[in-house]
Amino acid sequence: GLGFDPASFSKGGNATCPFCGTVADSDYVKAEGRAARMGQQMMAVVCTRPGRQGKVYLSVEQASSLLESTGRMPVPPEEEMKKRIEALCRRTGLTVPKEQLVEKLTDQLPNYGMTTMADLFTPRQMLCLLTFAAAVREAEEEMRRREYQLECERAVTTYLATALNREAEDSSSLCRWNPNAEKMQGTFGRQALPMVWDFCEISPFGDSVGDWRSLIDLQVNAIGGASDVGSTAGQVSRGSATALPWPDASFDAVITDPPYYDNIQYAALSDFFYVWLKRTVGHLYPEHFATEVSPKKNEAVSSPWRHKSKLESRKAYEEMMAQSFREAHRVLKPGGQMTVVYAHKTTLGWSTLVDALRAAGFTVTEAWPLDTEMKSRLVAMETAALASSIFLVARKREWVQTGSYEDDVRPELETIVRERVDSLWNMGITGADLVIAAVGAGLRAFTRFARVEYANGEEVPAEKFLAEVEGVVLETLLEKIFGMPGSGVAAVDGPSRFYVLWRYTYKAAEMDAGEAIVFTYGQNVELDGPKGLSTGRHALVEKKKGKYRLRDFTERGEHEKLGLPENGTSAPLIDALHRILWLVENQPRSLNKFLDEARPDRERLRLVAQALAGRALSGGSDDSS
User: Fold this and answer.
1) Distance from C-alpha of 361 to C-alpha of 304, rounded to nearest angstrom
2) Do residues 470 and 456 lie in contact, with contact meaning Cβ atoms separated by under 8 Å?
3) Which of 371, 432, 472, 601 has the fewest CB neighbours in a 10 Å radius?
């Protein structure tokens, strides 16, 4: 064994020496990294067994001894690797990708001295990838010597180059080891390049994840699948969605998966692949690889660091989205439809989308969730990520008029939302996917008008409307979860309703303030403040670094006064339930005494307990209430 746990090396950026226990704070660790005094040490070797299942785990000493006993070459030292890289570059004209890490692709790596794309790879990985890049260029030259058709030569070279991109994604020092699946997790488990303290380095010929042959097979299968769709070749055009090159009324449908507000910095992420494509096929597509890194100035994402403030960033995003949708509106035929794929959770992200659609002259007619995401992906683990994407169907608005919120919009909203919640519930769709899909369906009532006003003539902003929609959705959900009409649900206290809704929607995941505050709508509670749910020893919600998460009975139940009346007012039912659960597990003899003192409404307490234990909340990895 190693004699220590490598996973415990770093906590919060602070490093603990595995031998003497000395703690080096994060500032010191970062300074050492910037001074190029931070390296890596091999911890173990994982081996596959040809023709047999399972893997063998060897210490470094065992692996070295095995290599020596079989007469195989040991792994050359780093200095030797660097010399081979230099020789390869001189021979082929290739260059090490020293393009700078830019934008918010990473907010950690430069602090540790990792400032270029080359810094993301070990010398062994870099030598491997550059060797593959040289082989791609050699394959192109060989096809030319054999007089392949120019388009065939170009296509095969491009497919090989994209396989190399996949190899790079599986061969960086940011790849993780997944101990549950016993396999490597690629660079982009999340849509960012975070610091990784213990990483996994694969063999590209190891008959496992990242194996070159398997990547080629993936390419071949993808090409075969695409050719099965039909004989008509698709046309790909690169340009701005804000200025489409096609004439008016020329398309039956427009399908778009637009940027999700500030969720992902697409252009910055693409640089990871851009630098390798530029080296393999940049000469074949000079019009697309003329710049050092990918263009970013006109990207339709909300980037505060690219603009003066969050407000300016939001304004720029809204303008680009609205102009893109106006162009889609222009090229659509009168009876055509636009489908917008959207999977953002925050009200702010949705409000910008709604404003852009309305400004372009669209009415949202339908919204349905489709499973598009893997639940096992890294970004979904312990987060409030959606398992589905919402497909919004929009059509050109047939008339422009002002609608009354009280007379036209609100009544229709109630009908649409309740019908959609019923449908989704009966289809077995639950949690955040149900909530967001029902909110999307509610847009029909709002977007069919160019302007919606309150009775006093004031315009209803999209954010306000979305808050109303979410309130109706959550109210309807509570009726479903508790199995009773709204009047009965209203008898349950606000903190308990809040807790049940959060647990139903996101289980134990933590959330940003903008997402968490949604659950306060209509519950007469607040997250912060003197009486906020995150305040005091008995806090129902923990607030940490701008994130909120629910606390369960194991964290709250030990407090003796939890669940007891205060100043003549009954405690929230969730407090009583948490105390009861803790007592049952730890001090069962004290349970009757607590019930005599707390005197909770037992019927309502039963409803809350059943709601938290019911089908709607089951299936999560964390079942504690």
Assistant:
1) 28
2) no
3) 371
Q: How far apart are CA 329 and CA 236, in angstroms?
A: 20
User: Does 466 share its domain with 498?
Assistant: no
Between CA 386 and CA 434 the distance in angstroms is 10
Q: What is the pLDDT of residues 386-399, one digit of tens each?
A: 556 889 999 998 87
> Is 25 part of any domain?
no
Residue 152: give the domain boundaries: 76-226+265-294
* Residues 338 and 356 placed together within one structural domain of the fold: yes
pLDDT for 371 beyond 80:
no
Q: Which amino acid, 103?
A: E
Per-residue pLDDT of 514-525, as tens digits, reads 778 878 877 888
| Length of the chain, in residues | 625
Q: Indicate the pairing of strand 388-396 with strand 362-371.
A: antiparallel
Structure token pair of residue 484? 């009773």
pTM, full prediction = 0.79
Tokens describing residue 215: 């990547």
For residues 465 and 581, state if they share a domain: no
When pLDDT is averaged across residues 337-359 and rounded to a whole number, the result is 82
| Domain identity same for 251 and 183 | no
- In three-state secondary structure terms, 250 is coil
Q: What is the pLDDT of residues 118-145, one digit of tens each?
A: 999 999 999 999 999 999 999 999 999 9
List residues bridging with 48 in a β-sheet: 55
Do residue 624 and residue 503 come from a single domain? yes
How far apart CA 232 and CA 292 sit, in angstroms, is: 34
What average pLDDT does this structure show over 342-355?
75
Q: Is residue 57 part of a domain?
A: no
Q: Flag whether 38 is in a domain.
A: no
Q: What are phi and psi of 257, to 5 degrees?
A: -120, 85
Looking at the fold, whether 276 and 200 belong to one and the same domain comes out as yes
- The 3-class secondary structure across 143-203, one letter per residue, is HHHCCCCHHHHHHHHHHHHHHHHHHHHCCCCCCEEECCCCEEECCCCCCCCCCCCCCCCCC
pLDDT tens sequence across 443-478: 999 999 989 999 999 999 988 898 888 888 888 888
Residue 48 belongs to some domain of the structure: no
Distance CA 30, CA 28 (A): 5
The percent of residues above 70 in pLDDT, for the chain, comes to 91
Query: Helix H segments across 230-309?
Result: 266-281
Report d(CA 473, CA 163) in Å as an integer: 45
Confirm if 152 and 146 have CB atoms less than 8 A apart.
Answer: no
CATH code (residue 445): 3.40.50
Is 503 found in the same domain as 408?
no
Split into its structural domains, the chain has a count of 3
Q: Mean of the pLDDT values across residues 597-605?
A: 91
